[in-house]
Amino acid sequence: MQYTLHTPLTKQDLAPLRAGDTVLLSGVVYTARDAAHGRMAELLDAGKPLPFDIAGAAIYYVGPTPERPGCAIGAAGPTTSGRMDSYTPRLLDLGLACMIGKGKRSQAVKDSVVKNGAVYLAALGGAGALMADSVKSCEVIAWEDLGCEAVRRLTVENMPLTVLLDAHGGDLYQSGPAAYLAASAAGQA
């Protein structure tokens, strides 16, 4: 199924999603990679607020390239999400609703996604220019010194994504290969 969603996201928005569904996401999405996640953890450890409201938020694991004239952002392909796994359950417990990236996640992240009614969505790896077409505006909001890893506020429109982990424990990395093998076996019979 295909769904159209707008941030901020609620558990009710995410509940119908199943691993393998497609999503067109619009609204505000924040960027954060390894270094930014480390700084967010430092802020939380010090009892300080994050640079954006985490409740219902979507974080895109991306380090965009510089924009060309007339463009909001340069190439904006996803980075490997597993590098953020040690930080993710804490952010999900604080209300993070959606993560966007590529690659498998740890069992702790999978369990936290289910516990918090969140989702993990895949952006097309290797298609940074396509993903950038969905970005209508981009503003650095924290840690400009991190360069491409600074936290940015993106406004996106119809960003094409696929549900990898759903709030019910569905995991496309498990169900996808199984479905492919079953279809292949049926085709050979």
Averaged pLDDT, please?
94
How are the strands of the biggest sheet laid out side by side? 2-3-4-5-7
Poorly predicted spans: none
Task: Give a short account of the largest sheet.
Answer: 5 strands, mixed, barrel
Helix fraction, binned, reads 25-40%
Provide the structure class.
alpha/beta
In angstroms, what separates the terminal alpha carbons?
28 Å
CATH level-4 homologous superfamily:
Fe-S hydro-lyase, tartrate dehydratase beta-type, catalytic domain
Shape: globular
CATH topology: fumarase
Extended strand count: 7
Radius of gyration equals 16 Å
Helical stretch tally: 6
CATH class: Alpha Beta
How would you name the oligomeric state of the polypeptide chains in this document? single chain
CATH architecture: Alpha-Beta Barrel
The tally of structural domains comes to: 1
List SSEs in N-to-C order.
Answer: EHEHEHEHEHEEH
- Proportion of strand residues: 25-35%
Keywords: Lyase
Family: Belongs to the class-I fumarase family.
Domain Fe-S hydro-lyase tartrate dehydratase beta-type catalytic: 4-175
Organism: Gemmiger gallinarum
